[in-house]
Write a structure and sequence with these properties.
By secondary structure, the protein is an alpha+beta fold. The protein contains 7 helices and 8 strands; from the N terminus they run H-E-H-E-E-H-H-E-E-H-E-E-H-H-E. The two termini are 31 Å apart. The N terminus is likely disordered.
Length: 228
């Protein structure tokens, strides 16, 4: 999220500022992240094939659709990431998905007790079309953290470390309605992502960044994309 510190000289100028910020945020892309496991009785190859059909025949045809990605980690946990032009269009698609008989069988593949979904408003649009691997980290910042200072450190992670690594494609940041932060880092493949893990932990800017996280709220997944 972009955090803006504004000194309002009058009620009129403050109102205009808030309206301008609202318009800007409404036009930022939404990243919808759904994680889950499939039921033990489901063949992963059957699920992968049906997942590709759902993307082609249903999700990609919804208003506001930008991009859909499905992935799996080393422990069999799945992720579906969908980018939307607005929260309203994401909501409309989800409501239709829950009642559309054409995707009813797909939903039945998923263990409902394992499913979690979050939506984040992004600072920048998705552009990593040639990526095959993503790291997604969500967390709250420590109470009392200066939001503007955190935003600057967050951006420095890319300019001083991640953006310089071999295989780096894009780093997206954003937040949900409660203020929870997300960082999604797109890589060429798992090999280039793996190669950056330990150097990241050792980098001074990474330590500064992580010191501002509430570690108890942090979750991270690393996923290779399906159907690519």
């Amino acid at each position: 999220m972009l955090w803006i510190i504004v000194t309002c000289i009058s009620i009129f100028s403050c109102t205009n500022q808030n309206k301008s910020e609202s318009i800007t945020m409404e036009h930022n892309q939404i990243m919808e992240v759904t994680t889950f496991r499939i039921k033990p009785s489901i063949d992963p190859q059957v699920f992968s094939a049906r997942d590709a059909e759902v993307e082609q025949d249903f999700t990609s045809k919804q208003p506001g659709f930008v991009k859909r990605q499905s992935g799996i980690d080393g422990e069999g946990n799945y992720v579906v990431v969908v980018f939307w032009e607005s929260k309203q269009e994401a909501d409309a698609s989800m409501n239709k998905f829950m009642s559309d008989p054409s995707v009813e069988d797909y939903a039945a593949f998923i263990d409902p007790s394992s499913m979690k979904m979050s939506r984040y408003t992004l600072d920048n649009p998705f552009s990593a079309e040639d990526s095959h691997f993503v790291e997604i980290m969500a967390f709250n910042v420590i109470d009392g953290t200066d939001k503007d200072a955190f935003s600057k450190v967050n951006k420095r992670v890319e300019t001083e470390f991640t953006g310089k690594r071999n295989g780096f494609k894009q780093r997206l940041t954003g937040s949900d309605d409660s203020g929870k932060q997300v960082v999604a880092v797109y890589w060429l493949d798992k090999k280039t992502s793996d190669a950056s893990l330990q150097p990241f932990m050792d980098a001074p800017i990474a330590k500064e960044f992580m010191q501002q996280m509430d570690q108890s709220t942090m979750s991270m997944g690393r996923y290779a994309f399906l159907n690519q």
